[in-house]
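[09:14] KT: can someone run the structure on this one? pasting the chain below
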Amino acid sequence: MADLAIIIGNGFDIDLGLPSKYSQFIEGDEWKKIVNTLVLSSNNDYRKHSLIYNLYKEAKNDTKKDWFNIEEEIKQFIHEHPKCSQDEVDDIKMEFDILQKALKEYLIRVSSKCKMDVGKFPYMFINKLATCMKKIVVFNFNYTNPINFLPTQDYSPRFLQNQISIHGNLDNSRIILGCTENDDCYNSSLSFMYKQNMLNNTNNITQSLLDAKDVVFYGHSVNDMDFCYFKDFFNYVSTRNKNNKNITIITLDENSERTIRDNIYNQGIVVSNLFDKPNSFEFIHTKKLNGQDKEELQKWANMLKRISKRNVRGIRRIN
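[09:31] RB: done, structure tokens below
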């Protein structure tokens, strides 16, 4: 049973300076190569059922290009292609595999050039975790491993034992890219792009969150694609008033906080109940931290002190 549970999302990598947004991937050579190979040389009949062409078209037409989301577009593509011939399914599967490989190659390339600045807040956070003597579990929703960005090897090996990559990582043969299924229109012919068909288990996230006294989300938007992992936890905390949990969500700014609140609310959770004592539920904005906002810096310092406080019972190994 972990005392401290950490959820790491893409906002963490972005704070490091890693160009890991999907909108940045589609500016990379890896994406341009598959577009040139599969889209620009294809005919109109092929493009009608081409996953890559659909992503290419949506990326070009997206007025908010910085927020282009491949997984949301995959979900929409599945919805718009309920009936495909076997040949079309084979083509889509081929393109999907190429897409995953290209994304992995892109992230390996840009990650190799990224070194964590010891002055950045993600470094302070991960370094604190790496030397933490609490019973800790880290659920990493990124493909990257934060340990690889530490400038030294000054961390406890136990930290590695308590890291779980939910969607695979760059060291694996395959990363897990895709979307959640749509209950209203489950598409069995394209179900290979549903995440649940690529996962072997969820590594008991719900129970770990329920067991932990401190839960920290860093850079995760708690979006509907991943909310299945968190719904039971938020539902439990919001409907019981004797949890005494410290829940911290580290996000960019007020706008991203509002998006997270909306995401939780849209899943049927009464957000205001999360603030009920004896629970502690707070947001920390990295934009304010970088701007040296005194109040935000104090919240940050208090959070680091709380999560690093030693627990004499030790650390549980997770295999």
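[09:33] KT: thanks! The longest strand covers residues 246-251.
[09:34] RB: yep, looked fine to me
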